[in-house]
Amino acid sequence: MPNTNNNKVHYFDYGVDQLAYFDAGTGPVTILLIHGFGEDHCIWKRQIEFLSNHYRVIAPNLPGVHCKPLVIHHSEAPSIRNYVEVMHELMHHLHIEKYYVLGHSMGGYIGLEFADYYVNHVIGLGLIHSTTYADNDAKKASRMKVAEFIEEKGTLKYLETATPNLFGQAFKQKHADQIQDLIDNASEISKEAMIQFVMAMRNRKAFTHLLSQSHIPVWMIAGKDDIAVPFEDSLAQMNLLPTNNVLALEQVGHMGMLEATEAVNNAISQFIQSAENK
């Protein structure tokens, strides 16, 4: 029977406001799903429906998504660590000590720093259309242009411009309604929060060393038609991992959770099962 609790929304006070999160399923194994930039936790709806039949699944909005952005002192630069701390506080609030972290895109950046710092809590890390590399100079310049665009035009205009390009061509042609839903879901995120996310991504460091450590398993899912995370970069990183820890999706862009739902769901389940059976 499908789990029917996946629409149950809970709220967590992170000191500035309350963020919403899904808490679905039961069991000894818990998965924390962290969404990406220009998204909310609903991006994981299909994964929650599938995974919550076997695991407990926590899927929060990041601070700033349908709630107030984090207050960062003007002397400090926004950092991925800011979001790691809130996610850690949420899991502590839920009395969950050990869990797998899976992150999409920016959510993967948060997962990397999470796994690197909270080594006694994160027992496995999944990078879904994400990268362990830091931004190079060209990407940092691109981030600044994105921040300037959002400041001038606002969140909705940015999403209308950028979101369709995250999908592979076939999906884009067949599922314009789903892409529009994604835009609509995130359109009310304030430009302040969006710019904070952009700058945190720009300021992050590399965590490529996590691909060759043996403390926790790391998995990667990549799309061969991804323009946000070039597949050449993904392939170079996947070559550092065991073959069973990677999935390359044909004719898929940056949004495998929607573009190749069954393949992504099955891969996540297999990743977790393999880790639990060791």
Q: What report would you give on this structure?
A:
This protein has 278 residues and is α/β, with parallel strands linked by helices. It is 42% helix and 16% strand. It has an 8-stranded mixed β-sheet, with helices on both faces. Strand 5, helix 3 and strand 6 form a beta-alpha-beta unit. Helix 2 packs across helix 3 and helix 4 packs antiparallel against helix 8. The N terminus is likely disordered.
- Uncertain residue segments: 1-6
Compute the separation of the termini in Å. 28 Å
Tally of DSSP helical segments: 11
Instruction: Give the DSSP E fraction (strand runs of 2 or more residues).
Output: 15-25%
Strand order of the largest sheet: 1-2-4-3-5-6-7-8
What profile does the largest beta sheet have? 8 strands, mixed
Compute the number of strand runs: 8
Helix and strand run:
EEEHEHEHEHHHHHEHEHH
Based on secondary structure, the structural category is alpha/beta
Q: Which bin fits the share of residues in helices?
A: 40-55%
Radius of gyration: 17 Å
Give the overall silhouette: globular
Mean pLDDT over the full residue set: 96
